[in-house]
Amino acid sequence: MNNDLHAYPVRAVKGVTPAKAKELEALSIGTVADLIEYYPFRYEDYHIRDLAAVKDGEKVTVQGKIYSEPVLQMYGRSKSRMTCKVYIDPLFISAVMFNRHFLKDRLHPGQDIVLTGKWDGRRLQLIVSETELPGGSSSQTGTLQPVYSITAALTQKWMRKTIQQGIVQFGALVTEVLPVPIVDKYGFMPRKQAVYRIHHPDDAAEGKQARRRLVYEELFFFQLKMHAFRALQRKRADGVAHEFDNEVVRQFVRGLPFKLTDSQKKVIGEILHDLKQPYCMNRLLQGDVGAGKTVVAAAALFATVRAGCQGALMVPTEILAEQHKKSLDKLFEPYGVQVGLLTGSATDRQRRETLAALHMGLIDVVVGTHALIQDDVLFRKLGLVVTDEQHRFGVNQRSVLRRKGMNPDVLTMTATPIPRTLAITAFGDLDVSTLRELPQGRKPIKTYALGHDKLDRVIAFIRREVLEGRQAYVICPLIEESEKLDVQNAIDVHVQMSHAFPDFRVGLLHGRMPTQEKDAVMNEFKEKRVQVLVSTTVIEVGVDVPNATVMVIYDAIRFGLSQLHQLRGRVGRGEHQSFCILIADPKNETAKERLRVMTETNDGFEIARRDLELRGPGDFFGTKQSGLPEFKLADLMSDFETMEQARDDSADLVADPGFWTSADMLPLREFLQREQILDGEQLD
Ligand code: ADP
Ligand code: MG
């Protein structure tokens, strides 16, 4: 936060040699600011305590008098064990010291001593790790000492000393960065004090207070960036203000074959409101699998078309593109809205024709895969871009598509429910709409976890369901990072299933198949000509076959909870009771717990929350698409309330016109400029 401190390399601190500087660099400490903002993750407590109140196994510092001469046993040249009786009111204990024979001559009966170590109450023994004798130079007794995360080549002692030295030399340059009203509102320590005290608190409460302030600060600047970005986007007002009559959309909704859920109505309302505004909509629609997101997108696309613009719907797979094209055709047909399809498997001629029609405006809505974002795709007037199952798209792809229009509105849909904790972090720069409920009449899917040895029963069960007229998916074991092995697995399982069901048709679907073959299999499954579909996870997103009632997942523990939930969401889409069978032999408690979560709940938000608890935020999205910021001090789970405060405060700040002009706020605007959120000319 502080320019000046960032200008000094860490070498400027006394005691930091080039070799040490290199070690520090491995901890991302390059400047003095990095060094003194390298906060401890816990403290060692050297306060003297009453032994009577100490629990077995606890580490403790106690004070007493040596009672007997130490007894030393040497093991070889350097290893030793020394014991001596110490009186620690009201107990006589034995102090056990390993490899500290050099102390022998300094320990005499009658002498005062401070011992730190692990207490064994049953044997009245203290396994000593540190001693302090009268007149010793160190005086950590009675303090909390910071513990830093360090590399093997550094020691805690050196780190403590060096950070302390950094503060002595440069502490005066630490200045306040938070607005005064915020410091006052929460009764925060001034920054200088907080930076000092987090390294050297007088007591635990003070350490907490310092941390609280610094956590807030970290989260505040993070939130400020996102809110300022959003506010500027609105201020610029360079989006499309779609003009259409709400009644037209209402009519479209009345024409649907079902009644919308309250959630769907509310979310459509939010989107229509955004579409009419002159700024760019940037909205995330999250809803559990089967919540009915497609029809929400359809309503938004319909409004866009009625406002004289074109819409695009981008999806991650060709199967999904075709499926969406079909549903949109059905929904839009009565209104003469033209839907086009653009995927990688179109012939050159088809592609040329579609492109021409798009450019001339003969196609109102185009559905497609990443083929939509190639350079030769031009629109007449692109007004709305919807991306479905957004977690499959990189940010880049989305912005490329956006540039094709004149800042079209963007609606992003995901069925990976993001727990609230993560949503305000990962999507702080988006408005979020949520479909909370499923359409009525859905029967909850029954989920079971079985061992691989129960495969016979699973096969018998599939047989029964198929004989009742239903269909089944069998998802193959997942091999991380190797599509080739996934494919091999699918082929093996397909052979196995074909053998088990000689009287049924068993289909095979995997990512390496040519698109036409994939479509053919998928269509056969939809038309019930294939009863059992063996597939890799290509089936994961969006596919809608209501007659399928069984989802069998091999090696279920290899999948993330959210992915299992997605896969399970392929069934339970029709009137019949559906089942999900997780085949797994969990080896540890976490794996068992994950399966238990799946069998206990069908609620995607609950599953996401538990997934987050079990895996932590880093793993939640998978590293590739995490997009989550890394915080120095803040913890997304435990500091969630502070995150909410920081969010509200920064939202209020940027909503105040004074923020953009007043002299008080100049440091914050400079921060935004450094972060390239504000352009130079907007600063004054
Ligand atoms: P998802 O949110 O997973 O994309 P879809 O949009 O594919 O869900 O919808 C799942 C199914 O529910 C579709 O067959 C769709 O036609 C149907 N559906 C959507 N909304 C409703 C509703 N309000 N009432 C009944 N069925 C609905
Ligand atoms: Mg969907």
UniProtKB/TrEMBL annotation:
It catalyses: Couples ATP hydrolysis with the unwinding of duplex DNA by translocating in the 3'-5' direction; ATP + H2O = ADP + phosphate + H(+). GO terms for molecular function: DNA helicase activity; hydrolase activity. Pfam families: DEAD, Helicase_C, RecG_dom3_C, RecG_wedge. InterPro entries: ATP-dep_DNA_helicase_RecG, DEAD/DEAH_box_helicase_dom, Helicase_ATP-bd, Helicase_C-like, NA-bd_OB-fold, P-loop_NTPase, RecG/Mfd, RecG_dom3_C. The keyword Hydrolase applies. Keywords: ATP-binding, DNA damage, DNA recombination, DNA repair, DNA-binding, Helicase, Hydrolase, Isomerase, Nucleotide-binding. Plays a critical role in recombination and DNA repair. Helps process Holliday junction intermediates to mature products by catalyzing branch migration. Has replication fork regression activity, unwinds stalled or blocked replication forks to make a HJ that can be resolved. Has a DNA unwinding activity characteristic of a DNA helicase with 3'-5' polarity. This is ATP-dependent DNA helicase RecG. It comes from Paenibacillus hodogayensis.
